[in-house]
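User: Run a structure prediction on this.
Assistant: Running it now.
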Amino acid sequence: MYFYQSRGHRYVQTDSQLGTSVSLHSTAVGKTILSVLSDDRVEEILSNSELRPRTEHTVVDRDELRERIEAIESGDFERARRIRPYENLRAESGPNNPFAAANNVPAVKYGVDLAGLVVGPVREPLVDLSDSDKERAETYYTQIVDSGDS
């Protein structure tokens, strides 16, 4: 919950309002807070939280969130940024999908396939990634692997 707010003369306007609360997983500040807590406390918070999306870029996958928190905790902000493009692809609906963030499952499955583990096709009503999204996934995957973040 936001209980204090201060602004300098060159502040950045955010949508935070006094008295409102947001889940820690859904903001950069929240992930930073999680990065300084003990692993046990983070697990307690995550296991008692429904990771609802706040925006189309909100990390709602627990493993991905833990990876992001670990990158922040270690001060490896470049790694945290490199993970981001694949997350953006996952957050999209993709062509021929009527659901928001419908690329999530196909992108994860395709990423696992790229890693050499075949997990099979997606089930209806979802559809596989488009050819252009597969190309993007391959590019992002290669960038992550080449950087040593896999």
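The mean pLDDT is 75.
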